[in-house]
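User: Sequence recovery, please. Input:
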């Protein structure tokens, strides 16, 4: 019977993240999601109000 491979060391890093790293990660996720939402709103407004091809 084959032995199970060991888990990658990245799991140890994620589990042992400091409070500062957790806050930084949450901040980065908030930033990316906020940017994405703003981009979608701008795209929808552009398509609805300034349809390409109209003069």
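Assistant: Recovered sequence (55 residues):
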């Amino acid at each position: 019977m084959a032995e199970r491979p060991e888990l990658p060391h990245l799991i140890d890093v994620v589990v042992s993240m400091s409070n500062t790293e957790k806050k930084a990660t949450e901040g980065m996720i908030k930033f990316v999601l906020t940017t994405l939402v703003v981009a979608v709103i701008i795209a929808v407004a552009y398509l609805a109000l300034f349809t390409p091809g109209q003069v």
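The radius of gyration is 22 Å.
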